[in-house]
Amino acid sequence: MSRDLPSPPEFDAAFRARLHELFCWRRDVRRFRQDALPEGMLERLIEIACTAPSVGLSQPWRFVVVEDRARRQTVLANFEAANAEALGAYGGERAQHYATLKLAGLREAPCHLAVFADRGTPLGHALGRRTMPETAEYSAVAAIFSLWLAARAEGLGVGWVSILDPAAIAAALDVPAHWRFIGYFCIGYPETEDDCPELERAGWEQRRPAAESILRR
Q1: Which of 163, 191, 32 is nearest to 110 (CA)?
Q2: Per residue, what are the HEC states of 45-78?
Q3: Does position 72 have pLDDT exceeding 70, yes or no?
Q4: What is the pLDDT, as a whole number, of residue 3?
Q5: In angstroms, how far is CA 174 from the centroid of its own chain?
Q6: What is the pLDDT of residues 111-165, one digit of tens each?
Q7: What is the pTM for the complete model shown?
Q8: At what angle do helices 135-153 and 41-49 cross, to 10 degrees?
Q9: pLDDT (tens digit, 9 = 90+) per residue, 88-102?
């Protein structure tokens, strides 16, 4: 069935400049105020996330809103154990530096969101996934980034907690066994805002010029 094509919007120079600002001000936030999100905000952000591209239109992202206090405590305990193990992998001054870093806002953030990818989804009929099944996970990450930008545009911060045991988190959240854990996210209003990554401000690492990531053949 044919349909009339909508007229595309015009993205002028002013819009492009503002979009660039949004990218620059999207930061990984670890320090949150405890103010609750407005009613329905998280659901709107997830709706935006679901507009992200996905291989074969498979839409393999799965969002778990973690509200139960006991489950949150289990995630926090898992993070603390994994973080202690990570600290032990460093030595000397680097270990001392690592110990000073705040790497999660699990205690303060009002919203916790876990994201999984479902490789077994029947949507898309496996188009594009037969040779690269991991594109289901890549699609979920695209959805996460869409949510992240949308949250920043609303004045919210998002923090990606990756110092976790995937199997333990999946078990704690009681999700289907075939779902693959992508990440755990803290969402809320940031205590302070900055266009420079916190790890850069803390002297852990510096952002490299884009040219260093380009290889031409």
Answers
A1: 32
A2: HHHHHCCCCCHHHCCCEEEEECCCHHHHHHHHHH
A3: yes
A4: 81
A5: 20
A6: 999 999 999 999 999 998 999 999 999 999 999 999 999 999 999 999 999 999 9
A7: 0.94
A8: 140
A9: 999 999 999 999 999
Report the distance separating Cα 201 and Cα 204, nearest Å. Answer: 8
Q: How many residues does the chain have?
A: 217
Q: What percent of the chain has pLDDT over 70?
A: 100
